[in-house]
Design the sequence.
């Protein structure tokens, strides 16, 4: 396993500790994370979305993700970008998340 792959997995594990406070499922399982890119030198770029532009945690969740990713050993810099394209929908959720929320 390459160093970047190991760091990416560690970053994803940390992302899985972030929750939308209104939904009892982590944001990775909800499908809110679109991309985790690890560059040489430990720079990490996360592309994420929210359930809607009016999401009550729109101001707090992306900075929380960025702060937590920065704590991962090997991360030199972390940047979170919020995108609305493509828009989030429940079909982006993992089966585990759908099961947890009674959608299966």
Sequence:
């Amino acid at each position: 396993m390459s160093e970047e792959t190991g760091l990416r997995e560690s970053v994803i594990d940390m992302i899985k500790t972030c929750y939308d406070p209104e939904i009892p499922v982590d944001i990775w399982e909800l499908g809110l994370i679109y991309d985790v890119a690890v560059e040489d030198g430990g720079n990490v770029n996360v592309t994420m979305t929210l359930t809607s532009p009016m999401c009550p945690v729109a101001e707090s969740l992306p900075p929380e993700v960025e702060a937590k990713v920065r704590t991962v050993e090997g991360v030199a810099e972390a940047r979170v970008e919020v995108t609305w394209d493509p828009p989030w929908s429940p079909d982006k959720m993992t089966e585990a998340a759908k099961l947890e929320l009674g959608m299966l």
Notes: The first strand starts at residue 33 and ends at 38. Residues 6 and 84 are 28 Å apart (CA to CA). The first helix runs from residue 3 to 15. The chain has one domain: 3-85.
